[in-house]
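Hey, quick one: can you model this chain's 3D structure?
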Amino acid sequence: MGDPRRLTSHVRGPGHPWQKERIEEEKIFLREYGLKNKEELWRLTTKVKDFTQQAKRLIAATGKQADLEKQQLFARLQRLGLISAGAKLDDILSLNLKNILDRRLQSVVYRKGFARSVKQARQFITHQHVLVGGKIVTAPSYLVPVVEEHNVTLIGGLSKADHPERVPLPPKAKSAAREQRQERGRGFRRGGRRGDRR
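Sure thing. Here's the predicted structure for all 198 residues.
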């Protein structure tokens, strides 16, 4: 009945496959923001590039349509909390990846203190424990608008502050737990010679 639809990816990956500085920077972002893979990072990078390209195009454009598009772009970015109320098009050009990563639901849940780590925040979201404006949101990449940020809450047993998963570990307990894990890993090793067991 016709040719099948060929869906194209809306994610633009890096132009060069191997650049040490970029790879190291991506690893830092993955660790700091608890992202699952680099495609999530590239998707947000694409979004930032789209905003900046649209701003560049609107700087040069004139007319009614250009003014309307400027207003719509400003309204969208202000609603997402990426720019302030009195921002100009040049402020959009200075947007970076960190700005948009901070607006993700996963980052907001962690910043509000609902989770001990960004990975745990991601787990709470995917397990349907997070409400945004009265609705369950299961996408950690959801960009939280400014008006909904104070409506981010936990549901069920996790909503109680004394829930065991929500109680933050004191710094000494964290380091002691880390040392215990390392000690357990140093014991018996698989493979090697028989006499290597300690």
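One thing worth noting: The chain is about 50% helix and 5% strand.
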